[in-house]
Amino acid sequence: MAREATEVASIAQKVKARGRRHLRVRKKIRGTPERPRLCVYKSNRHIYAQIIDDIGGRTLAGSASVYRELFLNREELDKKGVAELVGRDVARKALSQKITEVVFDRGGFLFHGRVKSLAEGARAEGLKF
């Protein structure tokens, strides 16, 4: 019983730490109409990306691994592969709206693994950051 309580406490600490990191990053990063913010969120199962104009308060483009039409053959890919597809998709949507440069907001997550794969996928499609 005591072990379960410490596991719950450590999960709560991890969530708090990510929140603090996210606030620290967001103090410095601001999305503008000329250079919007590419925001990343990941859960254990899915990954989400949005391109946001913070001044106008609008989401300009977005993609996620929950979109069925994008990932019909997702069973063949690992989580990093899916993250790269999400990055490519959000970059295509941004480029169709003539957005070529963004500011990358990792959302308090460390820049490795799925977050890095998403960024590499977006860069591969031509998004600059």
UniProtKB/TrEMBL annotation:
Q: Which terms in the GO cellular component ontology are assigned?
A: cytosolic large ribosomal subunit
Which key words are in the record? Ribonucleoprotein, Ribosomal protein, RNA-binding, rRNA-binding
Q: At the top level of its lineage, which domain of life is listed?
A: Bacteria
Q: What is the purpose of this protein? A: This is one of the proteins that bind and probably mediate the attachment of the 5S RNA into the large ribosomal subunit, where it forms part of the central protuberance.
| Protein name in UniProt | Large ribosomal subunit protein uL18
> What organism does the record attribute this protein to?
Candidatus Hakubella thermalkaliphila
InterPro entries named among the record's database cross-references? Ribosomal_L18, Ribosomal_uL18_bac-type, Ribosomal_uL18_bac/plant/anim
SUPFAM superfamilies, A to Z? Translational machinery components (SSF53137)
Query: What molecular functions are annotated in GO for this chain?
Result: 5S rRNA binding; structural constituent of ribosome
| Family according to the record | Belongs to the universal ribosomal protein uL18 family.
Q: Which NCBIfam families match?
A: L18_bact (TIGR00060)
Q: Give a GO biological-process term.
A: translation
- Subunit and interaction comment: Part of the 50S ribosomal subunit; part of the 5S rRNA/L5/L18/L25 subcomplex. Contacts the 5S and 23S rRNAs.
